[in-house]
Amino acid sequence: MSQQPFSRPGAIDLSALKRPAPSAPPAGAGAPAGAPGGAPGSGSSYAVSVTEQNFQETIEASVTAPVVLVLYSPGRSPESATYAEDVAAAVAAYEGRFLAALVDVDVTPQIAQALQVQQIPLLMVLLDGRPATQPIPGVLQADELSTLLNQLAQQLTAQGISGRHQPRQAGSAADGEEDEEYVDPRYAPAQDALAEGDVDRAVAEYEKLVAANPADAEAAAGLAMAKVLQRVQGVDLYAARAAAAAAPDDLDAQTLVADLDLYGGHVEDAFTRLVDLVRRTSGKERDAAREHLLGLFAAVGNDDARVLKGRQALASALY
Predict the structure, then answer these.
(1) Among residues 108, 169, 211, 281, which is most buried (max CB within 10 A)?
(2) Which CATH number applies to 1-19+32-182?
């Protein structure tokens, strides 16, 4: 599945939404969103059931951190309701980096009309009140969903976007109050530094966290990504690529282009470049290429499907 980087194509048009008094859903349409047993993801602290009444507030919550909007229809596509549950569960694992917003279009067809939705299920990622990726129709498999969220989380870090959604009560919808930004206080100094563009300070702050607790996986991932940002600062992309093409076995040239690939979202290209370098080199250079690749694995996240594939390729290159 091809992933799209964050973009800002334009704010969502809400003009198609009417705001009549709430009425009972049609027979067979299922329980209203938020009703007991009626909404997928009702056990997640980072999921909301979207209605016409809270749709605007849900979109505004994307100013804090991305909102993963899923439109589903239990009546027309029972598997789409299961998919909505799967998305909510996947989002919950990121502890506030994303908020799952679940729209039952059987109950609230006006939202689907406002978004000009042609196919169910449909997933959209919103940031700053606007679509941040192209809409993704159909059901994503678990590994595809993990890849999408991992890549978006990586891009958030690279762009210095550090906000987090606060946990919601199980099955709750946005209550009309603006979602307050939440940043884990342990990571706040490093994330503030990234937001200010001070990558060197971010590296130093993450290093403190890792030194204090080597088992802190999020701090280790933050440090690895911050080091990538540190290494690519001020680099001329075209000159770097030309140097790597001219010297395919030069460790510094190849690792720099791998960093640039990762920073630009070409994760698999970065991994492949370094796996090939490991395969061609020996001794200290091979060890250095391997260590650099392990650092890129940490930056992306060890649970990412691309990292698992990259580790298999690395093992093959080594043995």
Answers:
(1) 108
(2) 3.40.30.10
76: helix, strand or coil: coil
Could you tell me which residues are beta bridge partners of residue 137?
122
Q: 148: closest CA among 296, 261, 5, 313?
A: 5
CATH number of 236-319: 1.25.40.10
| Domain spans in the chain, listed from the N-terminal domain onward | 1-19+32-182, 185-233, 236-319
**DSSP letter string, 234-247:** T--HHHHHHHHHH-
At 227 the pLDDT is: 92
What stretch of H or E contains 251?
A: helix 251-263
Segment 204-233, tens digit of pLDDT: 999 999 898 887 878 888 898 889 999 998
Closest to 210 measured CA to CA, from 199, 218, 200, 201: 218
